[in-house]
């Protein structure tokens, strides 16, 4: 009996309407468009505004669009995984809130937290459920409302992050296309360089933590950059070598959109030319768990059945990983 292979059978993204430009940030912190663009490649990012709107708002819109595009009845969904660093609340899971709102009442769901690597961790997890043969339709969401945990007086972080995300439908493949291999790593020693100081069980929210502005992202930029460049590039190269691939064999590199210099370094390590690298950081910024599904959504019309894709990410924690897949369909 041949192994069941999971594949992505549909992708859809969602970004909020409000655009926060570099020029607007110039009025908020000591920065300018040239400084931001030269260091990150970012020109603008989307911000989710409105009372009571959280990460589930992004996920709901992405999943609704996905189901409409693929013609799937929400009652057919077996599982929803939501990869996010900014859940609506500690519990219930944002995945379950999304499931209710899209009508997926027959599924189970849970959240996954691996920072910027969340979507590819979730993609590998979803594929395992499909490969057991028990599950036919799994939805993996990567979404974050990073504006909810960003200090807009801190130019080291506020220039980078935006809100948005996407959703992918994972189903069994009847051929050689689909998710072929994955590699994932983590190192808790990275905590000191990228974290949020308060709001968890170690340091619960209090008047003291709020006054000290400890409920925002803290990042030691130089250290994170150094680890990200090496880790994301090395693991992408490793998965290529493990599958006997060269840069010529790869149709697309799908990198986490954190920083253009990190993306360029990964492509060079893999021997991949710039025109084969998905890049949309200039208009969305770093949406954390949302960057990779947004890339696939933006480039979907250019993907061809059988294309070799290497997906790579690096996130706080530290977490990093890579997925090798063959794209399963031509966009109609």
- Gyration radius, to the nearest Å? 19 Å
**What is the fold named in CATH at topology level of the largest domain?**
Peroxisomal Thiolase, Chain A, domain 1
Q: What structural class do you assign from the helix and strand content? A: alpha/beta
Q: Element order, helices and strands?
A: EEHHEHEHEHEHEEEHEHEHHHEE
β-sheet strand percentage: 15-25%
Tell me the strand order in the biggest sheet.
Answer: 1-7-6-4-5
Helical residues, percent: 25-40%
Most strands sheet:
5 strands, mixed
Structurally, how many domains make up the residues? 2
Which residues form runs of ≥5 with pLDDT under 50? none
Shape: globular
| CATH-defined architecture of the largest domain | 3-Layer(aba) Sandwich
Spell out the CATH superfamily of the largest domain: Thiolase/Chalcone synthase
CATH class of the largest domain: Alpha Beta
Arithmetic mean of pLDDT: 96
Question: What can you see in these coordinates?
Answer:
The protein is an alpha/beta fold and 332 residues long. The chain folds into two domains: 5-176, Peroxisomal Thiolase, Chain A, domain 1, CATH 3.40.47; 180-326, Thiolase/Chalcone synthase (Peroxisomal Thiolase, Chain A, domain 1, 3-Layer(aba) Sandwich). The chain is built from eleven helices and 13 strands. It has helices at 22-25, 33-40, 55-70, 94-102, 118-131, 155-158, 207-211, 221-242, 260-270, 281-284, 291-299; strands at residues 5-14, 18-21, 44-47, 79-83, 108-112, 138-145, 163-173, 178-186, 194-196, 217-219, 252-255, 308-315, 319-326. It has a five-stranded mixed beta sheet with strand order 1-7-6-4-5, sandwiched between helices. β12 (308-315) and β13 (319-326) form a beta hairpin. α3 (55-70) packs across α4 (94-102) and α8 runs parallel beside α9. 49% of the residues are buried. The mean pLDDT is 96.
